[in-house]
Amino acid sequence: MGLVMAMFMNAVEMREIEIGKIRRSTAIVLRKDWRKMKGTAKGFATFGGIFVFYECLIEHARGKEDGWNSFLAGFATSVVLGGNCKKYVT
Fold first, then answer.
1. CA nearest to 46, candidates 90, 86, 6, 87
2. pLDDT digits (tens, 9 = 90+) for 21-64
3. What is the dihedral of CA 33, 8, 51, 45, to 10 degrees?
4. I need a labelling partner for 76 at 20 to 30 A (CA). Which of 20, 37, 49, 52 fits?
5. Are 9 and 40 a contacting pair, CB within 8 Å?
6. What is the residue extent of each domain of the chain?
7. Nearest alpha carbon to residue 57 among 67, 44, 70
8. Which long-range contacts (CB under 8 A, 24 or more apart) does 23-28 make?
């Protein structure tokens, strides 16, 4: 799913329009942007995996299946991914 989302985000990203030039084929564009798409897919997969882990963990600990589990899992995921950042804002 991360790769599909990365391809979608890359497709809708604003690009410079070259007037008077030959349009590039889809294969050439995909080859050029493959590294960027892999990075975006990796980010979505990381976020999704951590989120699902915490959501299941919280649901098991609370014994309830409600919206609070998703909220708390999103919070925990943001803390984990934000804590992994090497730059600190002062």
1. 6
2. 555 566 666 677 777 778 888 888 888 999 999 999 999 999 99
3. -30
4. 37
5. yes
6. 2-83
7. 70
8. none
